[in-house]
Amino acid sequence: MSTGHDRDERLERLLLTQELTDVLYDEAELLDEGRWEEWLDLLADDLSYVMPLRLNVAVGEHGAREQTRGGEEVCWFDEGKHTLTQRVGQLRTGVHWAEEPLSRVSHLVTNVRLRRIELPEVELSCRFVVHRNRVADETDFFVGRRHDTWRQTDGTGGTDGAGGWKLARRELLLDQNVLLAKNLTLLF
Amino acid sequence: MDLTDLLDADNGVISREIFVSEAVYQAELEHLFPRAWLLVGHESQIPEPGDFFSSRMGTESVLLTRDSDGAVHVLLNSCRHRGMKVCRYDEGNTLNFLCPYHGWTYSTDGTLVSVAGELFGVPHFRAGYGGKLDRSAWGLVPCPRVCNYHGLIFASWDPDAPPFEEYLGDFHWWLDNLCSNASGEIGQVRVARGVQKWRIRANWKFVSENFLGDNYHGPPSHESVDAVGIGPGGTSAATRHGAAPGRPRSIASTSFTRLGHGATGSVRYFLGYPAFEEPELTAYFERCEAARATRFEAEGRPIGAMGPATLFPSMSFHAGPFPRALMVAHPVSPWETEVWRWYLVDADAPPEVADWLRRYYLRYSGPGGLVEQDDMENWDYATEASRGPIARRYPYNYQLGLGMTQPSSLRGAVESDYFMTEENARNFYRRWGEFVRGDSWSALMAGA
């Protein structure tokens, strides 16, 4: 039997989980509807956005070598808000042929779990399935894990519905060794 | 294979069949990839005894290994008993490769075997083989020709292939720059850990052709990235590669008419190092450029030869440092290619410079690169739209700059009059045809 205090704590955690899950769903909708400038508003200015490579290594070496390290090794992405803003600018040119005509994209987000709560920052993990269908029959599935850090701000410059939460760190662990898609024009 | 009706390089008319036909693809696998010198990796990927890197040559899986004595080997990654891959790790450290199927074990440990990759362990050797299996005859197949070129490891399966330096010719100036740091010190580069590998639905030759001097594709293909700019130095095609402001741009491309290698630019042009937003980077590259100029004058090296460039048949690169990267286009089928990208950084660069360069490479190149993404769209849909029986009747046009060349100071090379040309592609495909139709090495190297 839990005490009233435990119950309050669990309720707080549940509410926070739901609040951030809603943020993730809102974010997915911005991406899938092509509202990329609004998505950029969700990003903290000091955002670190990393998608490492995944390597086949021997058992026991996974912790040290299975994924490349942002900040020093080759990744699929290792960048911040500035480069992501350039990506959005490129998508808007109308001559970014890899996304002209635009692909159809759906971000599915699930398995949301809070990992560390040290307000104003919350670390969470979730799974993503990103489906891309392009031109006629070109189809890609990107499946993997996200490790996010979201930061609560006063909400200025934010997007309606995000409640002032800004993405400060995102690590994307894509479950592929050889990338089976021809490119990564998507925002993850 | 008879290519007479498919390839008229002299007149710039080339059949789509060579990009989509299964018969042509099979001829490439038989006559081109097993004979040409191919890039396998870089020695900085295997610095210690026992280090290995799983690589690929054409369609074959190979292991780049360093044995217990420090020597580098290239071994076919296929057990001699039933063909199982003896290694499915991308990298690691071991002197013994155990086949998971029946347990044959191969070694690169000089205390156990006399030849790297020799068969060492055979389960039930006494009881099952009566102790009579000749282990020395059943080792991992060694690639007979391996060349360490200033750290880059090249290999050829053909024992009769000419030495790598002859195959390379005067194109070595481009490769020398790839292997040099920003100060021009040769051999002073290392691979940033992690090789990007990805699949594209395009014939592999689109990749080579794109980098060997196709300036023509730049403005339409890359207009979007030039609109946003990826630096250093702003938003223009010139600054995409990091040109110094006001520096004259290349007015020529260089083509090795017999050897098939080709490059944008010439040995005479060097774009220089740009001004950065970060003053410490500008200071670093200013120092490097001055050191490079002094060194090159003393050593008699030409100032240019930066690329982009392609070493025949399938290794393409930017000689750097904006970017300094290489890629190999591995054939998978006539319509599918696996591209591998390595990124090179100055071995002695301060951490902040190495980090800036790595980030720049990643936003430039590879499947996430703002520049390269658009290339892959073009290669893929060009391949698809060339496969139909109607489409195949109509050849591609390679007549840009036909007859518009002048001699180069380099042996076996010409320079184009205008910076947009398909001279490089014409010579590449002529060379390709010589290999694919099965010319002997004496014919291949005559006049080269």
TL;DR?
The complex is a heterodimer of chains A (188) and B (448). Chain A has helices at 4-32, 36-41, 62-65, 81-91; strands spanning 43-52, 75-79, 104-118, 121-134, 138-152, 165-174.
Helix percent of chain B reads 25-40%
Helix/strand-derived category of chain A reads alpha+beta
Strand content of chain B: 15-25%
Q: What's the pLDDT, averaged over the residues of chain A?
A: 94
Total strand count of chain B, please? 23
Provide the helix percentage of chain A.
25-40%
Largest sheet of chain A: 6 strands, mixed
Report the oligomer. Answer: heterodimer
Global geometry of chain A: globular
Q: Give the SSE string of chain A.
A: HHEHEHEEEE
For the biggest sheet of chain B, the summary is: 10 strands, antiparallel
Rough shape of chain B? Answer: globular
How many helices of chain B does DSSP assign? 14
Distance between the termini of chain A: 42 Å
Radius of gyration of chain A: 18 Å
Unreliable stretches covering 5 or more consecutive residues of chain B: none
The structure class of chain B reads alpha+beta
Strand coverage percent of chain A: 35-45%
- Through-space gap between termini of chain B: 22 Å
Put simply, the count of helices of chain A is 4
Which pair of protein chains has the largest interface, and what are the residue counts?
A-B, 39 and 44 residues
Report on this structure:
Chain A is α+β, with helices and mostly antiparallel strands. Chain A contains 4 helices and 6 strands; from the N terminus they run H-H-E-H-E-H-E-E-E-E. A 6-stranded mixed β-sheet of chain A has the order 2-1-6-5-4-3. Chain A starts with a helix and ends in a 14-residue tail after the last strand. The model of chain A has no long low-confidence stretch (mean pLDDT 94). With 448 residues, chain B is of the alpha+beta class. In chain B, the strands form 5 sheets. In chain B, strands 13, 14, 15, 16, 17, 18, 19, 20, 22 and 23 form a 10-stranded antiparallel β-sheet that branches. A 4-stranded antiparallel β-sheet of chain B has the order 6-5-4-7, with no helix packed on it. Chain B has a 3-stranded antiparallel β-sheet with strand order 1-2-21, covered by helices on one side. Chain B starts with 6 loop residues before the first strand and ends with a helix. The model of chain B has no long low-confidence stretch (mean pLDDT 94). The chains are: A alpha+beta (188), B alpha+beta (448). At the A-B interface, strand 2 and helix 4 of A face strand 14, helix 8, helix 11 and helix 12 of B.
